[in-house]
Amino acid sequence: MDVDLLRPGMIPIAPNTKLWFEFLIDPSLLEEHLNNPHADPSATELLIKFLYSSMERPKDMPAIDIDDLMDNSKIDKKIEYRKRKKYECLKILAMKIVSFWEWDLNLLQTRVPISLQIIFVQDLLDLVSNGLNLIDFESHSTIEDLSQLNDEQLFAITLFHRWTLTVIISYTLSKKSTFTLGPVQDGNEDVLMKLEIQSELSEKMLLRLIELKHSSYTIPTMNIFNPPNELQPSSCNWFNGLTVTSAEFLSQIMYDYAKYKFFKEQYKEAGIYFNRCKELHKNLTPSSFHKIKFEELKGFCAACSSELTEDSSLLMQFLYSAQTNYNGIFKILETDNQMMEIPMFLRDSLELDLASMLSLGKFTASRDMLLHIHTMNAIRRASVTSEEIVLLPPEDYVTKIKFNMRGPDIFIKDIRLCTLFKDKKIRENVKMFVCNVLLKCPKNLAKDILKDGHKEIQDLFGDEDIQQLLALPEDLPIVNINMSKRLARIKITPTSNVKKQQMLLKNKIRYEYETNNLRNLLQQLQKLDKELMQSILDIDYNWNVPLPLLNLLMNIPNAVLKYLVTILVAKSNEVILLNYFEKAKLLLREAETEIKIGSNIMYTKIRQLILWEALYIEMLQFQYEFKNFVIGDLVERCKQCLEYAQGDNLLPRQEIAEQCVITLLNVGEWEYLTKRHFNCFKLPMAIAYTCLDVNKFKGTKKSAKEIWDLVLPVFDYGYATANKRPLDGEPQNAQNRNQNQNDIMHVFMSLRDQNAIQIALSLLAKIQNVLRDESSMELIMPFLNIWPAIPNGMSIPLRNITEVLGILLNEALKHHPNHIILLKLNGDLQYVMGHYSSAMKWYLEAIVIVSDYFARPVLKPMIEDYVYKRMMKCCMQMQNFTQASILCLFQDEVDYATAFKCASETNSCDALDEYYDYIWDISLLEFLLYWHTKLNHQEHRQKLLKTIGALELNANNNEEIKREAANIRKLKFLRALSQQYVHP
């Protein structure tokens, strides 16, 4: 059945549609509709519509404000019009729906907005007042004898104060409302604050109600509410309600009161009333009014209790033991291994907490306690694991058994309960676990456990299984098969045993970094593998040895020394990828120490190559750590390496030589580099030449042309020969161009010297400016004038240059985060890309550094007019016109036309008059005063009059006072902008 809740209009409605007033004519229609499981609209929608419609404002009445509803002094005036019969009828229908919900406060709070809940509970108080002003809830405390009140008054007062406490809990835990109905909005925060103030009164009233001695109470049902008609006002036939016992009524009060005390962390008082409620529950015959879940009540009682009872669950015993120095924890865990009630994460947490407390000395216990808990947790985990998963005990657990004198005894003792398991699947899982432990233990220890005739082992394994376990070799890898199938299938041959031993040794070599241990493992492996050198680097695919060094190592005799040095160098290169430079240098030093054993020329060459590899690592560390790195003799060693690179004998790798050039470039050794000729390192050499030129001679186009000619063609897609396509369809020069771009990016990303970084950035900025060809969008940088023009016919994509510039700029800011030029350039880049908020952030960061976080005035040579002009345009694009108008004042020649235009914008998105206190220019203040007077904005006008009247802005002040006033306001304004854009 459809229900039309709106006023009937000119459009015909469906024949079966019911209008809201038909529920008043025939009361059975509402109950019939609500009992329909597919009612449309639902009970919730009906209730919200009835309550909302009962608050509709007549044209001659003021609007309802939720704050006024919480103010007793304004209630009567605001809701007086709701006494009219139409609104009375709507309130009665709302009462009927909540009666249908059997006065369940949880349903009311989860389905209805809090503003409508307030209306409902006040309507209920007003309905039963009968001469008393119960709607003024503060007057409830003045009622001397509550027993003299009628049943309906007692019920309404009780419901109101229960609702007050429970709604605080509900809306504190979930501070969201999914309802936004018309002019009545959910101001949850303000309402919660007022309810918190009222909560103390509600607590006292509920305590008084608990002490009443009534034998029974009456709860309203749907049929007791009678809507008003032309002869009589609305009334309630309370005698038709539901009669409940005193125990049922009071237990509901106690439960809600105790929940509030629990929510306020007053557990002792909450426990008293939870237990009283629990006692009443034993002799209770609940009706539809009773909404207490007994399991939930028991949980609250247990949570508030400081002692255990006979009825306490295993989980409660576990938690109580954890709070009382783990008394009886072994018995609890043994029992749980059979009952499996305690969640596994709590048992794991116990293990970790206990280990931490023992290590810190916060708890003392026997040495075996932690091993006991390890074992019982492992057994519990084994018993619930599916049979497809082999339970691999952690290595530290097996280690504890090996190094604890009583480890085997503890292990045997703790698995004795496993023999009591009747479930075949659980027994099989535990059997697999025990087998894995035995296989991981040393052979002699496993034999001792198996041969001692322990009853626990014999109950799990038969004699045949034990004999097969005793026959297995040491270090047998565990395979992922069922235990019974494993014992039946294992057939060990000498060949497979050797391969497995090799596999185990290689696996240990992979994770070992201590030299002596590596030597011992390699000695064992050499006995099993005569062609070890061919497969030594295949142990780990991340291992890599530079080719010149590997070729020399291949020429020395096969021995442990050869393998050890190879692995140490490979492991050094491996940890470089993780930026563990100190560890990498240590490994190379150990490799150098090992190679000193040999004295012939081959060993000398190997040692020299290792020293160059160590130098390479140190240069990478300098590049990574930069300002925190102590250079020492790094510069001299780089120069020596480059001298070797010019010779004809033993040469360092090209990567090492190039890194030497880049390192010398970054430490400012430009003159040394320009006096040498390294033909294979043209770009870093050209950068060094330009850095020297701009520092000595302020830059010439001749010095910059070499870099320009190296970089520009690489980004030109029409570079080199015409696009002759091979069979695969790709241009022949595409691969070379990509490779060159990677080489150039490698050099640029390796730059750390400020001058070198500015040279690279200015080059890219110049290309960007030429390609964009728009004067208002140019990137501003030093040294832009040293670059030649781009020749005609080049095809350089603007997006490619922009991306490279952004990447390089971000890398430079990582190492020079306070560099003013870089910060302004990043702001310019974001500005031309249309990222206005980000541009404001970078410009303001530059201003923050220049002004020492607004502690002193901003210096003009550091922050030029173009920065303020672009900041102004950014604000205009974001419709922050008030900010833009003030930024116009920062320029040397104030742009009043733009300032006045921005100040007169009516759709500004910023704080408007909040910025007026920051204005120091009288002309702008007078314009704003005129503008707001014209628009009759009295509040803005008063604020401007107060600002103009400030003594420091008086036109008769001397220039020093005016300048100081302007500086103070400028810094305050910039600080406000930084809070919005830099630190939002």
UniProtKB/TrEMBL annotation:
Q: Which domain of life is it from?
A: Eukaryota
Q: What is the lineage of its organism?
A: Eukaryota, Metazoa, Ecdysozoa, Arthropoda, Hexapoda
Keyword set, alphabetical order:
Chromosome, Coiled coil, Nucleus
The principal location of this protein is nucleus
What protein name does the entry list? Integrator complex subunit 8
Any idea where the INTS8 TPR repeats domain is?
Answer: 506-981
Q: Which family does it belong to?
A: Belongs to the Integrator subunit 8 family.
PANTHER family found in the cross-reference section: INTEGRATOR COMPLEX SUBUNIT 8
Q: Where in the cell is it found?
A: Chromosome; Nucleus
Positions the record marks as coiled coil are 511-538
Q: Which GO terms describe its biological process?
A: snRNA 3'-end processing
One GO cellular component term: integrator complex
Q: Which Pfam families match?
A: TPR_INTS8
Kinase is among the record's keywords: no
The residues that cross the membrane are none
Spell out the InterPro entries in the cross-references: INTS8 (IPR038751), TPR-like_helical_dom_sf (IPR011990), TPR_INTS8 (IPR057980)
